[in-house]
Amino acid sequence: MAPIAGVAVVLTATLSACSGGSGGPGSTGGGGSGGSGNSAPAVPAPTIKISPATGSAGVRPDKTVVVTATGGQLQEVTVRAGGTTVEGEFDPTHTKWTSKQPLKPSSKYTVSATAGGEGGPANASSSFSTLKPKFPLQIADVTPGVKGETVGVGMPIMVRFNRAVQDKAAVEQALEVEAQKPVKGAWRWIDDTYAIYRPAKYWPAHQKVKFTAHLTGVKAGRDTYGVKDQSTTIKIGAAWVSTVNTKTHMMVVRRDGKVVQSMKISAGKATTREYTTTSGVHLTMERGNPVTMISPGKKEGDPGYYKEIVNHAVRISNSGEYVHSAPWSVGSQGRANVSHGCVNASPSQAKWFYDNFHRGDVVKIVGTNRALEWNNGWGFWQMPFGKWRQGSALES
């Protein structure tokens, strides 16, 4: 019997013989009153087949490892690359084992299997190697991703990849978000390299959210495979929600629903669209002390040009809006809007806001006729969730 190509198989069989007469060792027996009985045919040990076959090279990472047994049942199958074991499952008859996860590119795998049956046990082994991707895919950046950072209840998860993703559904399927206090959410692809996860409602406060990208071996396009998993734990802090009313010139800050600060403010003077504060749900993005603010699209000497150095500034959009200190506007705060579009407050209260800021805190602004665009900074909450989820590669 010729051996199966690419598979090492050990077969054991039970041999039966009748002793008749006085034949010695190696004797086939002689005629006598005892005669020689007809023995039953030997039952062969199980046969094990492994795919990919041993010695295979350049195996695609999305190929499934399959181990089958005939003439018996599989008892144990182990597939390893280095110190990592591949997960798999048996079929109901225990005659087939199939891997459940993609393989790691540029890796050597070993497979060992045992089976048992009426004819005795059998063992088989195999080894193969996976291809090296022409275009390796991995995560270039995750925001938030600062170790030890506490973020606000409005914080999205923003993921940038190192190259374009063609099969967005396959990659999105590999992105996992686990919350201690789960809420419904969805991914939206902004472009071929950028995806953002946002819950339908704000995150429940005081919890941890774990983001894991199970990218290893995922085929993201032609000659493009994920080469590395990545995991980030995000700490969601208290629910800091600030409401700015540009008509009453007040800003009220709540922490977990309780008012902790009321601030007199001045907003954009609204003489032009550029100087009109945007209404809508903003998120705090970053801070600086000081920040130099220069009129956009103007150079020194142009009408309307300004260059201001402001302290305790917290950014809330990409169109130049901040909550910041403005000692020169104290007389207008609480009664008039005189800024170039920012929300300004007294030095002491602006510092308090600055000191208590977390990225992803919510700032709701009402009272103007200019709406915040959903893609202006982190204005993602401006888009209804039903429309947001339409940007997912998995949502219908």
What's the helix and strand layout?
Elements: E1 8-10, E2 47-51, E3 66-70, E4 73-81, E5 84-85, E6 88-90, E7 96-99, E8 108-116, E9 122-129, E10 135-137, E11 139-143, E12 150-151, E13 157-161, H1 168-173, E14 175-179, E15 185-191, E16 194-199, E17 207-213, E18 219-221, E19 224-226, E20 230-236, E21 240-245, E22 250-255, E23 258-266, E24 280-283, E25 286-288, E26 291-294, E27 307-310, E28 313-315, E29 322-325, E30 343-345, H2 347-355, E31 362-366, H3 385-388
Parallel strand pairs: 10-19, 12-20, 21-31, 29-30
Antiparallel strand pairs: 1-9, 2-3, 3-7, 4-5, 4-8, 6-7, 8-9, 11-13, 13-16, 14-17, 15-16, 17-20, 18-19, 21-22, 22-23, 23-30, 24-31, 25-28, 26-27, 28-29
Your description of this structure?
It is a single chain. The protein starts with 7 loop residues before the first strand and ends in an 8-residue tail after the last helix. The chain folds into 3 domains: 1-7 and 45-132, Immunoglobulin-like; 135-237, Immunoglobulin-like; 240-374, L,D-transpeptidase catalytic domain-like (Beta Barrel). The strands form 7 sheets. A 9-stranded mixed beta sheet has the order 24-31-21-22-23-30-29-28-25, covered by helices on one side. The chain has 396 residues and is mainly β. The protein is elongated and about 115 Å long. It has helices at residues 168-173, 347-355, 385-388; strands at residues 8-10, 47-51, 66-70, 73-81, 84-85, 88-90, 96-99, 108-116, 122-129, 135-137, 139-143, 150-151, 157-161, 175-179, 185-191, 194-199, 207-213, 219-221, 224-226, 230-236, 240-245, 250-255, 258-266, 280-283, 286-288, 291-294, 307-310, 313-315, 322-325, 343-345, 362-366.
